[in-house]
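Workshop exercise sheet. Pairs work together: one partner reads the sequence aloud, the other fills in the structure field after running the prediction. Swap roles for the next sheet.
Pair: D.N. / O.F.
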Amino acid sequence: MCERRHTADGEVIVVGIGINVKNDVSEIEGATTLYAEYGKAPRLDKLFCRTAKELLKMIAKIERGSDIIDVYTRYAWLNGKTVRIVTNENEREALCLGIDARGLLLIREADGTVDRVAAADVSIRV
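Structure field:
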């Protein structure tokens, strides 16, 4: 999940992630947990440290001059998958193609047209 915020120091992007460890996801279609997949829940401190370490590696690549689009594309799980997009205007399914140079989500609509999504709830069935 990403959110753009305006601060006294300028514009920032706040990025958040959620990891289902051992919580009840029975009412969420297609959702699973680490416990359900691996038969045990990891220690939360170790999970946090490993996740933070991987994020710091990606940030370091970007700071060394790696193109953010290339880094995103390498790690993006949604690319090539059908996603559900919900905006204030409508709800639809489309094929996720990646992101463009401005960071907008690229999708291919059912009729074959390519569109860009700037803000929406995007989900996928697993």
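Discussion prompt: Helices lie at 34-38, 44-63, 68-75. What would you look at next?
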